[in-house]
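re the bet — no i am not wrong, look at it urself. input seq straight from the record:
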Amino acid sequence: MNIRKIRIVTGTLLCLLCCTIRLQAQDSSRLELSFDEALRYAVAHNYTLKNAGLDVRKAEAARWEYLSSMLPQVQAGFDYSNMCGYEMNFGAMSIPMNPYGTFAVTASLALSAQQVMAAVLGKVSKEMSGIAYDQTLQATHANVKNSYISILVMEDVVSLLDSSLAHMERLEKAAQESVKVGAAEQISADQLSVQVASMRNTIHSNRRNLQMLYNALILQLGASVDSRIVLTTSLDELMDMDRLQQLATKEFRIEDNFDYRLLEQGEKVSKDQLTLAWLGFMPTLRAYYQYSNKTYFGKAEGMNMTPPNMIGLSLALPIWQSGTRAAKIREAQLDYQKTLNSRKQAEDGLQVQYNQLCYDLVSAMESYQVQKANLDVTKRVFDNTTEKYKYGRASNLEVTNASTDIITAQSNYIQSVMGVLNAQVALENLMGKK
């Protein structure tokens, strides 16, 4: 009997220990994030953004590679030669070819105008990588915002439909009781059952979509796949109509647009390429200094004709390449003109796009306010109709229509929220807001 009690107590303790470990694991995977915290978390952990940061560092390393090519290069080496006892014979005289080794240090410098321009282009490349990083950061923020708001909307809709489903299930149960006592027809109860099944199916579909949105947010945040995310910012805080109205009336600075900034950098690159083509006529300067020490390892000293110190200087001036350089200059001029035309076209296009996006945002805000009010009214109509139905003052058809209307209203509400979100993100992206 005592052994049995010990086993029971031991089993109970093991169960409690397993439950404690499981709860601790759940708590460790729980992420409570406000909207701003979610953005900061994505900046710190998003893998695409990390790769964009690595590209910036890579461009910086490439720039230093160009710069280092213009600095002196020093090389040291040691050569050993052994002619295996061979002797040079000059009649009665012979000279042994003893083994020898030569230690040499060479410092060289090569400088050309093309190298200077390559370093300049490397700097522009780094700046373009920085702009690309800002674009990736902007896209990451937009994706997180999209998922965050979509989750909040879907949770509100699921909560609303759950409440409506509870009403419908009570009506269905009451209708079935009425059929049993002969106070109602079976066809009325069946119609309610169909509406309950339809609403339940809609809720299940929305819950699956909600889980997909959470999975998408986990990927965008760069969080662990087993993370359990809890959002702490409300939808009303994010759907601030006053702030959105200010966004729609904010002055557009085309210099803040990332695409336009990339075009400006592309124009610089094209202009530098034209300069580089002209520099093909410039000379190339090379200089070097060499120190060498030749040592013989045999008994007799050999003939040493290697000078210990040597310097050299050369200047190469290109004269004629059958018109190749002139063709390159003409090609670079045409490319530069194309970049000028593209920038002017972008200025006009971005201004037109800004006007259209402001209009789209205002229209989306108006639609959102209408659909939000419509959803509230539809919910109150549904509650009122189901209450009347309990006391026989509303028909089965009215209840069916009310339940259909509330599903339609929630669908329109979701579309209006996403319309505001898409318009807001598009306008913020255009204005270069991160």
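see?? The longest helix spans residues 113-180. told u. also The mean pLDDT is 84. so pay up
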